[in-house]
Amino acid sequence: MNLLPGVARGRKALVPYLTGGITADWTDYLHAFEAAGADAIEIGLPFSDPMLDGVTIQQASDHALARGATVASILADLAATRVGVPLVVMTYANLVVRAGPAAFCARLAEAGVSGLLVSDMPVDEVAEVEQAAADAGLALILLVAPVTTDERLAEIARRARGYLYAISVMGTTGERATLAGSAATLAARAKAVTDLPVLVGFGISGPAQAAEAGQVADGVVVGAALMRRILDGATPGELGVDLAAMRAALD
Amino acid sequence: MSLMPHPVAGRFGDFGGRYVPESLIPACAAVADAFTEAWADKTFRDELDNLLAVYAGRPTPLTPALNLGAQLGIALWLKREDLAHTGSHKINNVLGQALLARRMGRTRLIAETGAGQHGVATATAAALLGLSATVYMGTRDIERQRLNVHRMEMLGATVVPVTSGSRTLKDATNEAMRAWVADTDRAHFLLGSVGGPHPYPWMVREFQRVIGAEARRQASFTPDVVVACVGGGSNAAGTFAGFVDTPARLVGVEAAGGAAMSSGAPGVVHGARSMVLQDAEGQVAEAESIAAGLDYPGIGPEHAHLGAIGRAEYRTATDDEVVAAVGRLARTEGIICAFESAHAVAWVLRAAGTPDLPTGSAVVLTLSGRGDKDMR
Fold it and tell me: Any coiled-coil ranges, and where (chain B) (predicted)?
């Protein structure tokens, strides 16, 4: 399925990330993101042990869990929310394994989710979820990293659906002052082997980095920079302004 | 065929695997390739065996616990890992991995630690081999295992306090893996137990196999029961490996507050599919034990497999039983063991003379470490 139809028309995709349940009225951020020009939105299902996440998204996850957010409550909130862009769930393997891949994917689909990204399920371990996602009509998004070999890149590109998520830098999620040089190299390598949109994420912290990444990729994922603002108390309206600036920089 | 063979694709039955982000896959593969090659290389094996002998003090004795055994009506033998250099079995794995890291051209060791025994061993090997060491340790463990923090610092390691989550071993492991992602070119992740992504569960078991192999050679009898404490499960894995092809019952003893085998469910944590203490949605639970080294919600995947096929049994001991066991072993045998190791002793104390451990049984118990760290 095509999660980002705008890319085929030359539009650069803007995909913000939001930790599910981070505030009581967290779904208001979804509407603000949509209004600011998001093409899709990644929803993080908070996990107790997010080993790929830096301190900001760790704090966001802890905050959501401490508030009492659960997979069930987040999916119920989503099911009760009308959002006009595709929603992608990003989480960790244990939540999927615990529920069972088929049941987990079915619940996501029922809540109106269109895609799934499991950070710690590399292509070698993804088979059981691949089938479940396909059966539920979910696009299974896979990660590629600067160290991914050509052979693996080809395999990942062959099996990914929705878009290919290129990790810009060797490290965890989090705000960074500049876009790593490895981002451009990886985006170019990925685009050479797939027709899927290639999005750059990790460390996209502001309009300048978004624009820079947009030069080499089909779009960007913005996570920690937004979560830092929410943790500091920014309202949906204020975050909409931030995101609109990135939209403008990409366009 | 051995019950504890080379895992195919990193799997032990339904457990194991390599559940790490794509960024860590090449690093894991590089460790697997390097270990496979080194383990088949006589030069590497000779260098490790020599270090284990002239530096770590191996072989460690198999001590007959005559007084306690007589009281319990069993023949009890203690495999004395507490007498290895740095005070626990951790040195066996650390020397192996540190030599491997140097062979791979790595200059920095990254490790997690709970009780601090693995951190001390890592700091020790780094000092010996001229590598730098960064050890992640939860602030709760730093408070209760202060002596080992001083030892690590004395040895030149950097101890990084971890304040996330439960501030114990689970969180220190997360942080060590995050540090590794950012420095895979220079650093080797020196995981201290038989968990983590392939090849760690297999590699660490192989480096700890020396415990069981020595004990089997030293024993003048065939034990009825082989018992060891289990957190992640490295001393138990190494011990079991020496006896898995004998009729001996293999018993692993977990902390009652961190009993992944007894109270957990299948899950994925720290790179492996195994048994995990968790809630109904898959949030990992916080373990709670007097023994920092067993204060861990998971267990190595090979233990999950040995339990699933019925080859090993997993029991628990409570904090109170453990404290009593430390005292009883000290007063009967003159050996002060670590809280972790005392879990195995506690099970023997409880089970001896019952159908679970009948009078007259011959028991080999791995005493994984010494108790100085717990004195305060």
Answer: none
Q: What is the ipTM of this complex?
A: 0.96
Residue of B nearest to A126 (CA): B19
Q: What is the mean pLDDT of residues B90-101?
A: 98
Percent of chain B with pLDDT over 90: 92
Task: Name the CA dihedral angle for B264, B268, B271, B275, rounded to a multiple of 10 degrees.
Answer: 20
Q: Where are the alpha helices (DSSP H) in chain A?
A: 27-35, 55-66, 71-79, 93-99, 101-110, 127-136, 150-159, 181-193, 207-216, 224-231, 236-250
Residue A4 counted as domain residue: no
Q: Do A147 and B184 touch (CB under 8 A)?
A: yes
Average pLDDT in the B300-314 region?
Answer: 97
Q: Per the omega criterion (within 30 degrees of 0), is the bond before A146 cis?
A: no
Q: What is the pTM of this model?
A: 0.97
Confidence of residue A226 (pLDDT cuts 50, 70, 90): very high
Amino acid at B328: R
Of B81, B88, B112, B274, catalytic: B112
Q: In what helix (H) or strand (E) does residue B15 lie, and over which residues does it extend? A: strand B15-16
Q: Look at chain B and report how many structural domains it folds into.
A: 2
- The verdict on B63 and B83 lying in the same domain is yes
d(CA B172, CA B134): 11
Contact criterion met (CB below 8 Å) for A206 and A224? no
Q: Do residues B341 and B301 share a domain? A: yes
Q: Is the pLDDT of residue B263 over 90?
A: yes
Q: What is the pLDDT of residues B351-364, one digit of tens each?
A: 999 999 999 999 99
For B240-256, write each residue's pLDDT tens digit: 999 999 999 999 999 99
Q: HSE-up of A177 (CA within 13 Å, CB side)?
A: 0
